[in-house]
Design goal:
mainly alpha
Length: about 110
């Protein structure tokens, strides 16, 4: 269970730290935060016409995934194709096949 601290407790801790009154005991065991299951994401701004944005969101809704995930998969497929690389995640490949089957053309 995560410990919740009041604003007063946090303020007192910050003041003690600023005053140099904080001591450290390197022998004390601490629990490290869990390792993230996925790599961190960075924002990538892309400007598209409103009609295209609507089509992307509709395709994501149809696929049952967030639109940002669908766009990441499409980017991965495009870069893989450009590089002539045959390595792509199975999830991306399955979604591309399903999209092509539903729309009658490739993703």
């Amino acid at each position: 269970m995560t410990q919740q601290y009041s604003d007063e407790q946090l303020g007192a801790a910050a003041a003690a730290f600023a005053a140099g009154a904080v001591t450290y005991d390197e022998r004390t065991r601490v629990a490290l935060p869990p390792i993230p299951e996925t790599e961190p994401m960075v924002p990538l701004g892309v400007r598209v016409p409103p009609a295209l944005a609507q089509r992307v969101r509709a395709a994501a809704d149809q696929a049952g995934v967030p639109y940002s995930q669908l766009v990441r998969e499409w980017i991965e497929l495009g870069l893989t194709d450009m590089a002539g690389d045959l390595t792509v995640s199975v999830a991306v490949l399955r979604r591309a096949i399903a999209h092509a089957a539903q729309t009658g053309h490739a993703a």
